[in-house]
Amino acid sequence: MTATDPTITSFTVRDLRWPTSLENIGSDPMNLAGENALGYLQYETDTGLFGTGWSFSNGQGNDVLCTAIRSLAPRLVGRKLSSLTSNMGDTQRKMVSGQIRFMSPERGVLQLATCAVLNAIWDLWAKSEGKPLWRLVCDLSPEETVRCIDFRYLTDALTRQEVLQMLKRLEASKADRLKLALQNKAVPAYNTSAGWLGHSDDKVRELLQSAKAQGFKHFKLKAGLGLEADLRRLGLVREVAGQDAVLMVDVNQLWDVDEAIEYMKNLAHLNLWFVEEPTSPDDILGHAKIRKALKPYGIGVATGEHINNRVMFKQLLQAEATDAVQLDALRLCSVNEILSVLLLSAKFGVPVVPHSGGAGMVELCSHISTIDFVAVSGQTSILEYTDHLHEAFEAPAQITPDGYHVSPTQAGYSCDVKPDEFEKYECPTGSFWQSPQGKMMLADPWRGVPGEQSS
Ligand SMILES: [Mg+2]
């Protein structure tokens, strides 16, 4: 396919929410009822190609996300794709500049919106080149890659010159890793689907056995409902998964720093790789303290899914505060800022293990982890696999029988959702949200809050 240079003519933004809480998918100690939701943007162009980009939320507030996307999306209407992609680093910088800067476009909901807008541009770029996004990025020269990154605030830890050298060093062996990616042997998967907090012990046992049969060797479980309950549940998991399995726990920001240290010491005998989000994601020094204190017990620390930007990741790495960089593909400023975090992680020698526990995240992160393996770190890491809602996507994520992520093959960034999903789950007009049950869930202002939810 010959590359085209479409002009963006208009856009639509839609609020899409799947009622995943009804199956306890995504339940954790801070939120008992996660509805996987997308603020979904599509740019139309004069060529018939469209660029799709979205960001994620847990249901409540998704309308705010959609409003934020609507406030940013008009900036790119009328622009030729090449005028944005010839210097993506500059495009990122412009998206977070101007009057909107007061609204914190590099943190919080505006950040999610910036991500959705830039995701749509990356999707359109990859579609116009007829390549899956990971391949588009891996085919960029080191000089072209560097132009995708806004180095502002990074240069005390990572310079443009250093990145050029890092990327050039990897060029010689890139073809070998590209071959592995094309054989679906780039990115091993780990499983989270067995470990949602709302599942019964029997359900956990059944899901673990089925995940083991699918070839998984790494499992992550939610924890933090109390020591007695955690010891019983994690003991069961260790027994079913076997001594060789790699186990991780995730407590979703539950504790104060010292509380995390004291609690986790009690789980040392379970041989855990890491505890994920033990405390506030903003507390970089707190994570460093927890990591140092738990090291003698053989337990690592992981965080990143709520870390807003490259500056925080820089500090997290400088402070030696994490054993895994769990970037979220929807929280950073799209592929641009993700590339800077992949490069920072490679420089500090910490593996990138992206967060992909929500609908569509595995679809996007299978591109990101493949880019990291082929073109940035050159190292094998692992990527989360959750098995819900893949059927809703036009280019669904898949895993191989031996537990690897399938490298995406369709042109674009795998963002497109099938039209049928909107008929049922667009909020509030879709048939589910118009049903008595849907209306009741939407009317509950405390949905997901322990002790307060009434629906
Ligand atoms: Mg998590």
Sum this structure up briefly:
The protein has helices at residues 62-72, 81-85, 88-95, 108-129, 133-138, 142-146, 160-182, 201-213, 227-241, 257-265, 284-294, 310-318, 334-348, 361-376, 419-425, 431-434, 436-443, and strands at 8-17, 37-45, 50-57, 189-191, 218-222, 246-250, 272-276, 300-303, 324-325, 383-385. It has 455 residues and is of the alpha/beta class.
Q: Give the CA-based shape.
A: globular
> What level of helicity do the residues show?
40-55%
User: Please, what is the CATH homologous superfamily of the largest domain?
Assistant: Enolase-like C-terminal domain
- Gap between N and C termini: 51 Å
Strand order in the largest sheet: 5-6-7-8-9
Question: Class by helix and strand content?
Answer: alpha/beta
Number of domains: 2
- In CATH, the architecture of the largest domain is Alpha-Beta Barrel
CATH topology of the largest domain: TIM Barrel
- Count the strands? 10
User: Mean pLDDT across all residues, rounded?
Assistant: 94
Radius of gyration: 21 Å
Give the topology string: H per helix, E per strand: EEEHHHHHHHEHEHEHEHEHEHHEHHH
The major β-sheet equals:
5 strands, parallel
| Count of DSSP-assigned helices | 17
Bound molecules: magnesium ion
How large a portion of the residues is in β-strands, by DSSP E?
A: 5-15%
CATH hierarchy class name of the largest domain: Alpha Beta
Low-confidence stretches: none
InterPro entries: Enolase-like_C_sf, Enolase-like_N, Enolase_C-like, Mandel_Rmase/mucon_lact_enz_CS, Mandelate_racemase_C, Mandelate_racemase_N_dom, RHMD-like
Keywords: Magnesium, Metal-binding
Cofactor: Mg(2+)
GO molecular function, one term: hydro-lyase activity
